[in-house]
Amino acid sequence: MSPSPLRAIAHPLERVLKVRPGEGAVLALAASYFFFLMLGYYLLRPLREALGIAQGADRLPWLMTATMVVMLLVNPAFSAFVSRLPRRRFIPLAYRFFALNLLVFFALFHLLPGRGGAALGYVFYVWMSVYNLFVVSVFWAFMADTFDEEQGKRLFGIVSVGGSLGAIAGAAVTETVSREGVFGLSERASAGVLILAAAVFLEAAARCVGALARRLQLSDRAGGPREPGPGALEGLRLIAGSRFLALLCAFILLSSLVSTILYLEQGAIIADAFPSESARTAAFARIDFWTNVLTLATQLFLTERLIRVFGLRAMLALLPAISILGLGALWVWPSFAVLVVLQTLRRGLHYAVDRPVREILYIPLGPGEKYKSKPFIDTFIYRSGDMLGAWSPALLSMLSLPVGAAAVAFSTLWLLGALKLGALHERMRRSLSL
Question: What is the mean pLDDT of residues 387-400?
Fold first, then answer.
């Protein structure tokens, strides 16, 4: 019997993407889940960036400090929440909670005079900084539960393709809707459209979680062997008792610190180059668009091969090495053109290579590390790096030290930490295989 037309198309595609029989349905659902998650986020991200610098880029350090404080307060509550419900319930509920928050912001932006002014814009900025880290951290924790390490090396790049397609679509839509004069929408109306659409796509992501839970036959009861255990502070206890998790904290802290120094420079350059909120939103969306084009191309054709040929240790070191070179170039030539090239390259490789590799590290760990330690690392530790990076320029200025040189020095420490983390992971894998 000749193969069906659908099978004739699917077979060579599976060979190119390294997909094995029985993996296709779960992989498609996982990629769809990430697609809706990132589509919704990238509809909002440029709006958040524009609101953050609406009263000047000098407000960003205070906003990042506020975000870190909120993260510290939210993490124990989230940890307690996941202790009481199984994964198939608490993940969709978390997404629907954030979707409800978006509906509240939509109402406030439209009902309050002047869209709520700078104060509401800053509240939205801090809320978005919490939202985006939690929803993505939970996504990757679920993926680390769904696939084993061998599958992660083959398939996490493909799972990430779904997120890249969503990010490209979101950035393109946001740039179009936000461009002055397009569709005749005011700034208020265009922001409202983006917020409502993001809430809809969060619900779509929640439904993908439900479909995956049914296919994987996840338990309806909390407290099972693959469910997070009790205790709001369990994640902190696990980090304190694990050299590997402590080193991962240092890696994330340095990564975030370096990224934030670059982020502040981006805000200052774009604020000087573009006069209006709409023009700045469109500029941020343009960077997002080209970043995700690079990400998608890398995920489709290079991620699995790079991991297979060079290994996790070398891939963990890739982004710090590029940051050393790129930040040095931006220090010498602080222009919008150099910024676009550096941000596109750094962020593209982060999403295509660095993030999948980092998430593979969690696969052998237990549910407590994945759903309690990991969100703490991905949110509070990450935002602590943000805060340190945000205040670094002012401190360095007081000490008469150049920010560019410090950024290169921090990137060098990040590179050394990446090599150490990769070596420790290799020793852990060898010990588990004995």
Answer: 83
